[in-house]
Structures are given as structure tokens and as C-alpha cells.
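Title: Comparing notes on inverse folding

I've been comparing how different people in this forum approach sequence design from structure. To keep things fair, I'm posting one structure and asking everyone to reply with a full sequence. Here's the target:
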């Protein structure tokens, strides 16, 4: 059966990048259809009622990377997006019962770090300024087609920041943090941000960029912060869907694509699993590069050399989730029992140490499950009462650095055994939870591939190392969002600028498709050569912090509650000033 309507564009997959692409195309006056295999929009950025009466963010659960330009362009707040913060962003809980909060307010965070190391508290301020500079150089490349890696390096050189490029792009997370911090607890917490969905450990070169990639995130204009979405992360993609539909886009759920229709080397539509054929001038895949090019296209549509490159594309590095319905909040070690506090509202990291992450990598490399786990935990129902029945809470556990292929077994066989082992570790940090877990839902790396369409269970659609970044993401032939098949495009996280709920991929792909449909020149990389000059505030901060006296003054300002507004202004991203 052939669908009678011809669309300007069919988007395969209603993940956040697919919905963003559809939204921009619809606002450009194009007739757009989004076809989604599942019964809900969002892909890995979704909210689901996994247990009757309770809702979780199934995969992604923290909002920080979504570009503010996209929020504004697509009017996502008008269409229901509600983002908010808790006072504490993070709490790291250590086996010795100590803990470290990362607060929304800098002065409170610095006082927390002082408990472990006054030297590291001062270093944290320096490190924050370095990360801010890294973000200021990298951010202009995000909402533009992929630059060459030499262009990116040239921008750092023009800013006199070659050493910053080396630190945040080429180094390992361990080497990066060792340059700034001495306390193992502090380094353990910050190491977590470089271990997200990686095939590697703290000492693996290039994991510094995984940390750096997350550092460009911001929350309502403030760099280095994150928050939550009312109703879970599906609040983002539901708003995107409503925005696109308001401008005429159609979204069809439960409509898996069997194959992209290719005629004379050009994509001309899609064939659904039910046999229906829908015609379109262009087809855009939100799936990962391997699925898009090796599975959705008919045999022979991709030449052998590119097939070989895509088969070698590195999509290793996975993670897993355990969603718990609990009837009592955890009494974390080191906190007063039975008392509700910020430790329940923040993202909690339990057992974060460089050694734990290194041991997890050794197990991952062997295809084994480690003896111990670093666990991240979020209980969003403590500040969003729409998610759970009264008296109950939704708790999500996350474990990184997990192998997709297991030696001598598979994830379906060991899923419950693995979850039991993770919970035993959890009970070391929250003993009272034993007996207060009412139900659980496990999402393994295999489930991420099978149910959420993530090849290898990699949430980034491919490793985020330097050899797979910028104009080499996913390969040079596919780096401009166009593929080697005419009228067939990629818009997912396997394209520039990479993974996470950022949305830049969908934005950039849409601009290329719109230009091609209109017969106009497509956008080019943001800049060649020197980047824009730093702003007055940033230059003043660099000047002040370059001297011993200036650093002391800066630390005094940063630790003063009375000067919070000044510190927050200094932390604002350039686009919000």
C-alpha cells in the first residue's frame, strides 16, 4: 500500500533530535511527517509509567545540555516545557560516611570542598574558570555544521588556550583532574562526569572530552549547572512534539520503519513494517549511524568502503538503569535517620572513587560485571509530586561502564542477578531501603538497543573520543548531515556535536535540509581561524585571577553569600548577557 500524500520530509524516529528537526522544518513551511516505532515520543529522552501509577525518566534524567537557542526558537516553554532546579545539584556519598554537596550557589559549594581540602576549594574556582573558557571557545561550533578538527584547534590557539585543548580534549579524566585537585574524594566525584557511557576508565586518554562535553551545559543561562523537568524528561520531548504539530507536522506512533525506499540512488520515502509506503522529497534518520546506514537502507545502497568504516565505528560503552518504587526515603550513611533533606533532592553519587572507576573499566574490558559499583541515584518525586502516589517515591539508579557483550552469558540471563548485586551495594549506603522496595524495572544495555534503538547500548550513538568528533563524526563522508544516498540525511546524536540531550544535531541537520529543499546555500562551519574576542567580564576575570592577590580576592568574592548575584552574573553564558 502506498500513502497518497507526498511529504517534503519524513523523519525516522521521534527522539529529541528528530522532533527538533521536524520542528524547524515545519516552521520553514515544509510538510513533515515523523514516524516513531514506539508508542511514545522521546526516544531515550522520555517519561514512562513503568509501574502502574508511577512515572520515571526512563533513560536520560538530568537537564543541562539542551541549547537555550532551541528552547527559544521552538517556543518550548509556550508548549509546556517546565524546567526547575533544586538547591543542591549533587551529593557524593562516600563509604566512610562523609559526603560532599555541589550546591546551586558557589559559596556553599566552596565551603563544602573546604571540608576536604582548602587548597582544592581554591583550585575549584580556577578549574571552573578554565571550564568556562573551554565552553566559550567550543560553544560557537555547536549550532553550526561540523568544523574540521584543525579549525577547532585553531580557535583554541587563537585564544592562547592550546593547553586547554590538550587538557579537555586529549587527556584522560584522571590526568585532567590531577592537574587541579589533590583530595581523592573530590577527584572521585568529578571523575563521574568523564565516565558516562564510555568504553574506558579514568586513565583512558580522551575521556577528558567526555567531561568537557558535559561542561558546556547550562541551566537557564548559568554554565555548569543542571536541573530537572516537570513530569520527567519526557516534558522536553512532549513540548517539542506539540511545538512541531502546532506548525503542521504530523507524528505517527507505533509506526516502525522497515526500510528507506531508494530509487536510482535517491531516497524517495519509507516503507513501514506493516507494508505501507510513504513518499517524501527527503528522508531524515534520527537513528544512530550504523542503524541508519547499514540496516534501514536496502542492500547495495552504501558502497563497500563506507560499509567497512561504519562497521568499525566505535559504539562501545554502555550503562544501565534500575527504577525503584519505594515507600520510604533512603537514610544515607552520614545523615540523620528519618530526616528529609537536600540529599534526597540532589543527584546522589555513591562510592565515586578513581579506583572504583578503574576497576569497573577492567571488568568492562573483560566483558564482566565488577565486584563493586559506583551508583548514581535520583528521587525526582521528592520535588515533583506528579510522578508517584502519595507516600511512595520513584527512585532511579544508574550504573556506568558496563559491557554490552558479556563473557559466557548475556544480559537477559543475568538481569535480575545484576540488579540484586547493585541493590546490595545500595544497601551499604542506605541500609533502611532493604524491605522498602515495592517494585523495580531494570533497563540493561541490551534493552537500550532492543527497546530504545541504541546500537550497542551507547546513549551517545557512538563513542565521544577525538577520532569521532567534529568533521569525523560519524565519518568524513557523513559529517555534513547528508549521506551518500541522495535526499537521505542524519540528524541523531551520532552526528556533530555528539550526544546528550543537547538538540544541536537536530537543529543543524534541519538547516541543511531546508537549504537543500529551497535550493539555497547550506550553512557552513561557524568560523575559520580566530574566534570572537572574549567579553569584558571574562577578560576582567582572567586578568584578576592571573595574580596571587587577584585569586585571593576572587575566592573572597566567590565565598561570600552577600555577593551571590555578582558570582552568578560572572557565571552566565555569553548568550544571556
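Reply #1:
Here's my take.
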Amino acid at each position: 500500500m502506498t500513502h497518497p500524500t507526498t511529504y517534503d520530509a519524513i523523519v525516522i524516529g521521534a527522539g529529541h533530535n528528530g522532533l527538533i528537526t521536524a520542528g524547524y522544518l515545519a516552521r520553514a513551511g515544509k510538510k513533515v511527517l515523523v514516524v516513531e516505532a514506539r508508542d511514545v515520543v522521546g526516544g531515550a529522552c522520555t517519561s514512562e509509567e513503568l509501574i502502574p501509577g508511577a512515572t520515571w525518566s526512563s533513560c536520560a534524567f538530568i537537564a543541562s545540555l539542551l541549547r537555550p537557542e532551541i528552547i527559544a526558537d521552538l517556543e518550548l516553554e509556550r508548549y509546556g516545557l517546565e524546567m526547575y532546579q533544586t538547591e543542591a545539584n549533587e551529593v557524593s556519598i562516600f563509604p566512610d560516611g562523609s559526603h560532599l554537596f555541589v550546591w546551586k550557589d558557589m559559596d556553599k559549594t566552596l565551603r563544602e570542598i573546604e571540608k576536604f581540602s582548602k587548597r582544592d576549594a581554591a583550585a575549584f574556582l580556577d578549574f571552573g574558570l578554565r571550564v568556562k573558557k573551554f565552553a566559550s571557545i567550543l560553544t560557537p561550533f555547536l549550532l553550526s555544521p561540523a568544523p574540521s578538527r584543525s579549525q577547532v584547534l585553531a580557535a583554541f590557539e587563537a585564544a592562547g588556550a592550546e593547553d586547554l585543548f590538550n587538557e579537555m580534549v586529549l587527556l584522560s579524566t584522571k590526568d585532567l583532574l590531577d592537574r587541579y585537585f589533590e583530595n581523592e574524594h573530590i577527584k572521585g566525584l568529578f571523575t563521574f562526569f568523564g565516565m558516562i557511557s564510555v568504553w574506558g576508565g579514568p586513565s583512558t586518554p580522551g575521556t577528558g572530552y567526555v567531561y568537557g562535553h558535559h561542561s558546556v551545559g547550562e541551566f537557564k543561562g548559568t554554565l555548569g549547572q543542571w536541573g530537572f523537568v516537570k513530569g520527567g524528561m519526557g516534558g522536553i520531548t512532549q513540548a517539542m512534539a506539540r511545538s512541531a504539530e502546532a506548525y503542521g507536522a504530523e507524528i505517527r506512533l507505533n509506526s516502525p520503519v522497515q526500510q528507506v525506499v531508494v530509487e536510482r540512488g535517491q531516497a524517495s520515502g519509507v516503507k513501514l513494517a506493516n507494508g505501507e509506503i510513504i513518499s517524501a522529497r527527503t528522508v531524515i534518520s534520527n537513528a544512530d549511524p550504523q542503524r541508519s546506514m547499514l540496516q534501514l537502507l536496502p542492500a547495495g545502497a552504501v558502497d563497500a568502503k563506507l560499509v567497512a568504516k561504519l562497521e568499525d565505528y566505535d559504539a562501545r560503552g554502555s550503562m544501565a538503569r534500575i527504577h525503584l518504587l519505594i515507600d520510604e526515603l533512603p537514610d544515607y550513611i552520614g545523615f540523620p535517620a528519618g530526616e528529609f533533606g537536600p540529599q534526597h533532592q540532589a543527584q546522589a553519587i555513591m562510592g565515586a572513587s578513581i579506583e572504583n572507576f578503574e576497576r569497573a573499566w577492567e571488568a568492562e574490558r573483560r566483558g564482566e560485571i565488577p565486584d563493586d559499583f559506583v551508583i548514581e541515584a535520583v528521587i525526582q518525586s521528592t520535588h515533583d509530586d506528579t510522578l508517584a502516589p502519595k507516600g511512595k517515591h520513584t527512585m532511579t539508579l544508574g550504573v556506568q561502564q558496563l559491557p554490552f557483550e558479556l563473557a559466557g552469558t548475556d544480559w537477559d540471563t543475568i538481569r535480575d542477578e545484576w540488579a540484586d548485586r547493585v541493590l546490595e551495594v545500595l544497601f551499604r549506603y542506605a541500609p533502611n531501603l532493604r524491605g522498602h522496595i515495592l517494585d523495580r524495572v531494570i533497563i540493561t544495555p541490551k534493552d537500550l538497543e532492543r527497546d530504545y534503538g541504541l546500537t550497542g547500548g551507547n546513549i551517545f550513538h557512538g563513542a565521544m573520543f577525538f577520532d569521532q568528533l567534529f568533521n569525523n563524526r560519524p565519518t568524513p563522508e557523513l559529517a555534513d548531515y547528508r549521506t551518500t544516498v541522495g535526499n537521505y540525511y542524519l540528524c541523531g546524536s551520532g552526528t556533530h556535536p555528539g550526544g546528550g540531550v543537547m538538540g544541536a544535531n537536530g537543529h543543524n541537520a534541519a538547516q541543511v535540509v531546508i537549504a537543500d529543499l529551497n535550493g539555497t546555500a547550506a550553512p557552513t562551519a561557524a568560523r575559520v581561524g580566530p574566534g570572537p574576542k572574549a567579553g569584558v567580564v571574562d577578560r576582567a576575570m582572567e586578568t584578576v585571577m592571573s595574580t596571587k592577590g587577584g585569586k585571593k580576592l576572587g575566592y573572597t568574592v566567590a565565598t561570600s553569600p552577600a555577593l551571590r548575584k555578582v558570582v552568578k552574573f560572572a557565571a552566565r553564558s555569553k548568550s544571556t548577557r
